[in-house]
Each structure stands twice: as structure tokens, then as C-alpha cells.
Amino acid sequence: MKSISIFWFRRDLRLEDNTALNKALAQNSNVLPLFIFDDQIVLDLPNDDARISFIYKNLQKIDGRLKEYGSSLLCLKGDPLHVWKELLKEHHIKNVYVNKDYEPYARQRDEQVEHLLKEHNVAFFSFKDQVIHEEHEVLKNDGTPYTVFTPYKNKWLSVYHPQKPSPLVAPQNLRQETERFPSIAEFGFTESKIIVRDYNLAIVEDYHEKRDFPDVDATSYLSPHLRFGTVSIRTIIKELNDRNKTFLSELIWREFFMQILFHFPDVVTHNFKRKYDGITWLNNDEHFAKWCQGKTGYPMVDAGMRQLNTSGYMHNRVRMITAGFLCKHLLIDWRWGEAYFAKKLLDFELASNNGNWQWAAGTGCDAAPYFRVFNPIEQLKKFDNKGVYVKKWIPELNTLDYPNPIVEHKFARKRALETYKIGIEA
Ligand SMILES: Cc1cc2nc3c(=O)[nH]c(=O)nc-3n(C[C@H](O)[C@H](O)[C@H](O)COP(=O)(O)OP(=O)(O)OC[C@H]3O[C@@H](n4cnc5c(N)ncnc54)[C@H](O)[C@@H]3O)c2cc1C
Do 253 and 152 fall into the same domain? Predict the structure, then answer.
């Protein structure tokens, strides 16, 4: 049996500037590209999940490109450890290459796979690819992680050197065998109606001025692309070409939360600041359902939730307003909102979602202070003063069909402040 090396795609769904793929091709011949729909993840999702459709389409694209080189993508579905056991039986595998994934589940999965491969004398190589700086590359002078954004950002910038994106190298080293690419139905999925937009960096010139207005199309829609790696972070920073510091800063927030999750994995289930553990959440099911459906009677909150439910996207300003409203006005545990966003967001990423939810709840690192309670009516006046955004998503606004507010703002604000205060002192 001719030996092969395997490159395993995960959240790096591209051929260009793919660090581990290039390493695999530069150091080996007969490289088999592989993707596994991971049952541990996909079995919890509906069959027509928009993210699965997006992944599938990108895999199809990759397979098409690989076929131009006389190769193809092996696409499987199952529990990764089980799939690897089968692959070891079917092939003589020499080396396996991956790009690192820093989420707790992914780290555990990779450790298990690496262990299995080592038992079979297969070398496992993993590379930094998803970020500019990984968790150990931006630390305080005493070697501990940053928990406040601005000093993290300053250090990040001070250790940054431009990295040139690299095109696909040595495609002749791909395994020269083509296989038919399965249909989406063969994996048990159906295509979603929700489409992921292309990203758009033409907006960066006036990003800092327009990014907070949800009725203006002034953000990049980059997040699902970074999430699934359809473009590399190095390519984006090169395209950005120093044109907008605010935009770069947002990209650094992404890495800030990734390193927080890496160093403090307890944030997945706990408040980053434990002094908030004493908050008594009301967790009213009916209120939660109304928030999810966009029927709270607060247009900015409702428009955001309906945008999320319909399109899998919500503007960042509105994410902050809807999240703050759930935690403060309704006194519902941020973990409920976080889980709902995780189900719906095309760009769902554990680190950013958790970090931003804890920010909104006031429980996170470098969070908004708990006594800062967004007024959803003022936010509407400030960021959508002509009501263009809210009318787009709430056709029955200004009619009798639109509900009255489920909670009065002043009352809710006072209740939140008291509950948080008691919680902290408990
Ligand atoms: C409650 C809440 C939950 C969120 N959940 C997620 C999530 O699951 N996944 C996710 O990628 N972002 C999340 N964000 C951050 C932010 O809202 C989105 O990244 C952004 O709206 C995506 O749209 P865009 O690509 O057009 O953003 P742009 O404004 O064009 O920003 C460019 C890129 O910078 C990064 N970025 C921007 N803002 C943030 C931020 N606050 N934190 C981290 N990275 C940021 C993203 O990679 C984004 O694609 C959340 C924010 C809030 C308030």
C-alpha cells in the first residue's frame, strides 16, 4: 500500500494561505485532503442549519479546485476518533497536518486523535493559522495573560510584524486520485434558505464613523468567513493595509477573547468575575420566549432578534442592546441568551460569543460596569433615528398588532441595579 499524508480541514476552509496545508504539501507527496462532519457538533443542529450549508458549499468549491489539480477532497461524517480509526485501517498514513483550533472541545478532540495516531506511529503536526498571535504570544511582562483589552491591544500591536499571505504551494503533491463529491443529502442535511454574504472591505474607509448605525450597510460581514476560515486573517490584514485603526482594533478583540477562553476555560460555564455569582436571575420563561421571538415591545430589541431569526446575522450595536436588555431589563441569565445566539448566529464562535455576552452582562473581563444599563429607546433615537432599521424588521410597528413593552424601562433599570448590588454583596 502506497503511504499517504493527510491534511485535515476544520475551520480553515480554503486552499490559499492555509498554513498546515502548505506545510503538508511542501514536506510530502501524496497528500490526501480530508474533512469530517463531526457528529459531536452536527447531531445537535437542525438538518437545514445555515452553517452546515455554508460549510458544504465551501467544501464543494474546494473539491472543484482540487479536481483541477487531479485530486479531490475526502469528505466523511461521524465521530472524529472513530473516523480516524477507520482511516488507519484503510490507509498507510505517514503524517497528519492540521491548523490549531483553540476551543476546549477542539483541543480535547485533537489530543485524542494525536494520541491515537501516535499509537500507530503516525506523526501529527499542528500549526498556528487562525490568529495572528496565539495565547502565549501576547502576555504581560510577568508572563501572565491580559484580562483588560487596551493593554492587550498595545502589546499585540507592539509584537506584530506583517505576515505575507502565501498561495497554495506544490499542488502536484496532492494525492492524484479523484472521487465523486457526495451531495448534501447523502450526509443527511438539507440546504438552508439563509445565505452567507461575501465579506466586503470596501467599507473600511469610514468604518469608524458608520459602523454603529444598523440601517447603514457599513460593516464588513467578515465574521462567518473568519469563523470558518474561508479567508485567512493574514489576507484580511493585508487587504486592510492600515486603512482603519478602529477596524484593526475589532480584529484584535477577536483574538483577545480567544486568549481569554484559552487561559480561562471556566468562562464557558461561569462568570469571569466570580463576585457576580450571587446575582438572582429571574429567568422568566415567558419573557425569554418573547425576547427570542422579537416581541418585547422595544423596537430596537425586537428588530435585532428578528434580524437574527431570519438572517442568522445581527448588527453589533444591536447585539449589545438585545444582550443588555435580556440580562438587565429582564434579569435573565446571560447563559440563556448566549445559548440562543449560539444556535442562530452564522458567525457563532464560542470565544467571541461568550466574551461579548459576559461583557453585556457586566460579569466578564473588561466588561461594561453593571450600572451601565442601555436605554433601548434612547439607543433607537441615537442609532436609528429615522426608524429605517426597525421598520425593516417589524412590519407591524406603529399598528395595534405591535405589543406593549413587557417591562417598563425605569422600573427595570432600578430593579437591575438593586439585584446586581445585592448579588455582589451576597
Ligand atoms: C452579545 C454579542 C455576541 C456576539 N457573538 C459573536 C459571535 O458569536 N461571533 C463573532 O464573530 N462575533 C460576535 N460578536 C461580535 C460582533 O458583534 C460581530 O463580530 C460582528 O457584528 C460581525 O459583523 P461584521 O463582520 O460585519 O463586523 P465588523 O464590524 O465589520 O468587524 C470586523 C470583524 O472584527 C471582529 N469583531 C468585531 N467586533 C467584535 C467584538 N465585539 N468581539 C470580537 N470580535 C469582533 C469580527 O471578527 C468581525 O468580523 C458578538 C457581539 C455581541 C455584543
Answer: yes
